[in-house]
Structures are given as structure tokens and as C-alpha cells.
Amino acid sequence: MDKVMESFIGKQLVANLFNDKGVFVLPALTLLSAEHIRLINQHKITLESHDVVQLDSAEFFQLAIDDCTAAIENIFEQIRHNKNKRIPMLEVRNEVIPFIQQVSEKNDFYGVLAALQSKDDYTYRHNVAVGILSTLLGKWLKLKPEDLSMLTIAATLHDIGKMRIPDELLTRPGPLTAEEYQLMKKHTTYGYEMIRDTIGTNHLQALVALQHHERMDGSGYPFGVLGNRITDFSKIVAVADVFHAMTSDRFYRKASPLYEVLLQMEESVFGKLDPYICRVFINKLMQSMIGNEVELTDGRTGKIIMILATDPLRPLVNIDDDFIDLSKHRSIGIVRVIPH
């Protein structure tokens, strides 16, 4: 793919696209992926700058994540109604993964988080969210490009086994009975089998579906294995999975405030989640908060100026002409981050 055509990836088509024989190729407002560019090249169409529009970050994230969620819903529903439960990997690779990679490349955590806030499609949006957050985390952990690509697919398919769970359980507004919860937990083994039996995937990716609810202290499911038997990919996806679940509105509870979630995740480091992976995640999220206003427990508001690597959840805060180091004033904490 030449550099000029590559530069159109992530931009939006202004009008319907036809080839020189009048054959319809792509509809107006399509957000162009690498796969679309390949299709345009096959039709020997040359795009000009006036054929596309550059979206601002917020519009791009919203459109990319909405498109991605719609594609995941379509793919997952195909699987739900297909007797052999085969995963259409070609569609996953062409219609979902390129958008997740594009969104991750922007490295704008707050833009991503705003677009991920669940509408009424949590079941599908959650898979996109975990795909994006795991990819960002994989980058922060400096994974090799080939491992990062493998992780993106594994993370996006981590909950695929839920397509073998009755829909009424997935959308139940109240708590599940003990018997229903046991059935729900089977999505891990179902997902493992489905990915294992799909051509174009590997055993590491299948293990992510199996292990993303396992915990370092052995308190997770389906097998209650200890941390030394959980793969690194599964540990990364577990952090992304927990974070998105806690920061999203669900059928049965409202989202928790972001800072409260980070505090709970830091507490989970001691036993539940991998401490190194979780610390990198919290650190990067807090770094992205520099410049944000925060409300403190004493009622004052200030701006985050600096994050301390040793204690990222207790930053240096500027209030008027005063600077408060929350790591030294431990009686004061952050109640919430005030969005821009």
C-alpha cells in the first residue's frame, strides 16, 4: 500500500464511492480502514484530499468505536445462531481489529474512555473496550508488534463464550441465582473451546478466554489456578476487563467513578490482579490526568500537576497559589476527577 493511500486511513468518505464502470464500492461517511483502502486499490480508484474529511479526535473515537461495536454485534450474533459456533475470523480481522488498532494508536486515554461509555449495548461494546484497553496496556508493557497483534485479537474475543449462554442471563437486571452463576461461569470454557477450534487462532489466544477470570491468589474461576499458571496475556486482559466493567453502566448497577475504580484496583493488586501490570496501568492512567481538575476530600478543588511513580494515586495538586503533595498529606484524598 503506498504512503499516499495509507494516509487516508482513519478519515471519512464525503460521498458514495463508485469505480470507473459505475460499480458502487463504498457508501458515504465510511470511516476508512486498511481493508477499505485495499478494496479501493483493487477497483483502481485514486482518492483525492477532497474525497475525505479529517474528523476531530472525539468524532473519530465515537464513530470508530460505534462501527466496531456494530461489527462485533453482527459477528457475535452470527455465532449465536450458527449451530457449529464457528468464529468468522476473516470478518474479525477485517472489520474489527483495524479499528481497534487505529483507536489504540491515538494513545488518548480520555478520548477513548468517553467513547466507550456504554450505551445500551454493553455486551458487545465491552469486547471492543477490552480489545482497545488491552492493546494500550500491551504497548505500555512494550510487547513486540507480533505479540501485540495476537493480544488484540485474544482480548477482543475474550468473552466469545457468552454466545453459548442464554441471552436472558446476560441481560438480567438483578443478581443471578447460584445455579445461574455456575452456568454463566462456563463462558470461559466455552470460549476456550471455540477459539481453540477456529483456524487462524492459537492456543495462547484460547487461554485468554479460559483464564481472564482467574486471579493471582487462586480465588478466580474456572479452575482457581494460582498466578504462576496464568499467562501474561490473560493477566493483561483481566486488568482491562475489570477496569471497563467497573467504569460502565450495567443492567444491574451504575458505573463507579474513575478514581474510586483505580483505588479499588490498587487494592486488588495485593492478591487478585498482577501487581506489575496493574501498577503500569494505574500509572499511565494517572499520567494522562495531569492538567485535570480534581475534587478533594476537604471540599477544595485543584489541578493535578505531577504524578509520583512511587505513589501514583496521591499526586501533587495545585490549589490557587498552594501546592499540596497528597503523598505527604495522607488525611486528604481525591474524591473524583472533574472531566474537561
From TrEMBL:
It comes from Paenibacillus etheri. Gene3D superfamilies: Hypothetical protein af1432. It comes from the Bacteria. Pfam families: HD_5 (PF13487). InterPro entries: HD/PDEase_dom (IPR003607), HD_GYP_dom (IPR037522), HDIG_dom (IPR006675). The lineage of its organism: Bacteria, Bacillati, Bacillota, Bacilli, Bacillales. Residues 101-297 form the HD-GYP domain. This is HD-GYP domain-containing protein. NCBIfam families: HDIG. SMART domains: HDc (SM00471).
